Amino acid sequence: MARRKKIYEGKAKVLYEGPEPGTLVQYFKDDATAFNAEKVDVIDGKGVLNNRLSEFFMTGLMNIGVPTHFIKRLNMREQLVRQVEIIPLEVIVRNFAAGSMAKRLGLEEGTPLPRPIVEYSYKDDALGDPLVPEEYIVAFGWATQQDLDDIIALALRVNDFMSGVMHGVGIKLVDFKIEIGRIWDNDFMRLVVADEISPDSCRLWDVETGKKLDKDVFRRDLGNLTDAYTEVARRLGVLPANSAHPKPTLIN
Fold it and tell me: How confident is the model at residue 242, as a pLDDT?
């Protein structure tokens, strides 16, 4: 394959110029980071698993009418996506108190919330991705009030879909974060779910035991991260039930 032009490299993925105008190739790395890259490691097989899991979730969302940037998976580590203008926000949906919310409010982790809560953080690692209110977002021009209304509607649809899928395989969707991008068709702008949806961007707990099956395994040194992600993939049917390692056994 000819050498492709690198467009952007983040903590967990690399974006390359795509084969057609308006497309990108998204490559999933094995790098794991936590606490805004203060903790870094390479986790063998993580990129393969996240590629397949993100494909699974993005495809499922599109099947119920939620627009995403995903086009197709190209191979074990790469997928073809639409080029979008990323809104500089992480959109966080919380169903249970955990992580920073639990610390901020003094809540016990796992406390059910009265309803799903949508929060926003400004995407800037140097600042620690600070939480921002809607007033800041509109005032600084990161998104309009109409954009925010549409983003909340998208985020809650993603939450409904993800919660149902996970509950069906005995996993509690505690919280997750997504990114939203703008796609322009001439003068018409659409908002789509972009980036990825994977255990890197969700908190997933076993319903029966409370065992963590997400990046908190890495953040809190709770075991092998690849094993946790593999368990999620097996339950969802992305991996064969008897597979021992994600690399040679992925279903095409």
Answer: 57
